[in-house]
Write a structure and sequence with these properties.
Number of helices: 6
Radius of gyration: 27 Å
CATH architecture of the largest domain: 3-Layer(aba) Sandwich
Largest sheet: 6 strands, mixed
CATH class of the largest domain: Alpha Beta
CATH topology of the largest domain: Ribosomal Protein L4, Chain: A
Structural class: alpha/beta
Number of strands: 6
Number of domains: 2
Length: 212
């Protein structure tokens, strides 16, 4: 299996080695339309679809005719639950339904590889060996980001091998920084963040997620 070597740096910004990653993780043939389709699919899956309003048959009221049909100079009315009345039902309002749609698993994997490849080609992929945090300290975590050249980045997606309470809690209040584990990496988060910072060991999980 073909592989690509990535430069690995430590928490001081110095190169400490290289990481071999399967070449299929960086699929540069993916089109923008496929990325757009997968992002739409992700956002659609997140929608609860529980929106609901009451129709004229469901609001309280109704029963007796508000006033007689003729002779009082007002427009005829048959029920106070009519949509034209204040407090009446809603005509053609939203009803609960699902927004998700199907997309091939292979296409989802290709889009994920394409998103990672895009960050690599743009020079916005940073591979870190470790944060080196022994305790929960936002200040120290931010110093690491500054040391690796991401101090002025507007937004950073940090991918770790597995849930790490120290790293997660150290960066959860950092502006523009989101921490996820390799199993949760997705197209939307990659595109939504300016830089992609991946811990070297996290590529093992990414490879298993993308492999066909």
């Amino acid at each position: 299996m073909e592989s690509i070597e990535l430069q690995v740096i430590n928490n001081l910004g110095n190169q400490v080695g290289k990481k071999e990653v399967a070449s299929f993780v960086f699929d540069e043939t993916v089109s923008h339309s496929l990325l757009h389709q997968v992002v739409r699919w992700q956002r659609a899956c997140w929608r609860a679809g529980t929106h609901k309003v009451k129709t004229r048959a469901e609001v309280s009221g109704g029963g007796a005719k508000p006033w007689k049909q003729k002779g009082n100079g007002r427009a005829r009315a048959g029920s106070n639950t009519s949509p034209v009345w204040v407090g009446g039902g809603v005509a053609h309002g939203p009803k609960p339904h699902k927004y998700d749609f199907k997309i091939n698993k292979r296409d989802r994997k290709k889009a994920l590889a394409g998103a990672i490849a895009a960050r690599k080609s743009e020079g916005r992929l940073v591979v870190l060996d470790s944060f080196g945090l022994s305790e929960i300290k936002t200040k120290k975590a931010l110093e690491v980001l500054k040391s690796v050249g991401l101090g002025s980045a507007r937004s950073i997606l940090v991918v770790i091998p597995a849930y790490d309470d120290v790293v997660f809690r150290s960066l959860r209040n950092a502006k523009g920084v989101k921490v996820i584990d390799s199993k949760a990496i997705n197209v939307y988060d990659i595109i939504a963040h300016e830089y992609l910072l991946v811990l070297a060991d996290a590529f093992n999980g990414i490879e298993s997620k993308i492999s066909f």
